[in-house]
Amino acid sequence: MDVVQQKLGVLRTHLDQIPVLQQLEETAKVPKEHLVLGVGALLVIIIFFGVGAGSLCSVVGFCYPAFKSFEAIETKIRGDDTQWLVYWIIFAFFSIIEVFADFLLYWIPFYYAFKMAFLLWAFLPQTRGAKFLYDSFLKDLLKKNESRIDAALADAKKQAGSIGGDVAKVAGDVMAEAQKMATADDKKDE
């Protein structure tokens, strides 16, 4: 029991450096180390049992990197911009794969725990996993298929413009017909 108290004391010393936790401790009347351990346990349960795990993974995979990207934009250091651009490329690639493989992912036990670990590995500055994946695999794949990707995007843009024009024409025709009907109804009422 003394070992547990000693570890809690060490944790408390680290948590004393976070003013928000001090305020939370005073408000809740619960020691901050217990609050942090409780929230951590809750997050572990959420991730391993899947209740809201997808949303939690999305928040973790988006919020911290988005804030760090904002900070990188606002500083003059170029290396951090590159790190976060590479992360967003990996995040987008992972998200696209996940959309198409969603029906298979349902059957993988602890998928969200693995996804959370992957996202943390990808964006933490200590690991720079996204940079590793980009340099090792994705860069060569994208460079090799760059012309085909550009052609597909150009074709999609052209088709989207054509479809948009068709939708606008149909919407205009519907509005004109509705106006004719409204005018005819007004003449009947007179």
TrEMBL record:
TM regions (residue ranges): 35-64, 84-101, 107-124
Membrane-protein topology: Multi-pass membrane protein
Annotated localization: Membrane
Principal location class: membrane
UniProt superkingdom: Eukaryota
This protein's GO CC annotations: membrane
Keyword terms of this UniProt record: Membrane, Receptor, Transmembrane, Transmembrane helix
Annotated family: Belongs to the DP1 family.
Protein name (Swiss-Prot/TrEMBL): Receptor expression-enhancing protein 5
Native species: Seminavis robusta
